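Morning run. Coffee first, then this:
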Amino acid sequence: MKEIRRILCGIVALLTLVSFVGCASIVAGGDQKINIASDPSEASVKVIDADGMTVFNSQTPAVAILKKGDGFFKGASYRIRIEKQGYKPQEVVLQSSLNAGWYLLGNLFIGGLIGWLIVDPLTGAMWSLSPDHVSTELASSAAFLQQREGLMVVLLKDVPSELLPELQRIPGQD
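And here it is:
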């Protein structure tokens, strides 16, 4: 009789433990790694959250570990700003979406209502950030005027190929 009681207590304890965890929290966790690269490399990278706070600051290539949630039942969003002197800055927006597999289906079998309604929404594990890999090619920041008249001085290598036929040589300047 004592043996049956011990087995039942073990089963109840195990079921209680399982009911207090969320499946997405166990499998995916509340943070996500975002790979960030640029061409050329060694560009400054800042990750800015929805409140305008810089949460990550480094140089490319980099891996930012970001929170997927931004409060109870709210996914996080970020702006990734990549810049390097002599190049046009680039910005990429990270958005969160529901991690349907682990959150919905996983909790159906493991976490139950506690996982669906408390644990995964609280930890942010119910969300996934996208894209999870940011790779950008920085364009030269050579300035071009949109007007057709006047004098504009730029390096020949910075002139777009479609504008080359429109260039005019200044007489006496060889």
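The longest helix spans residues 100-123. Good start to the day.
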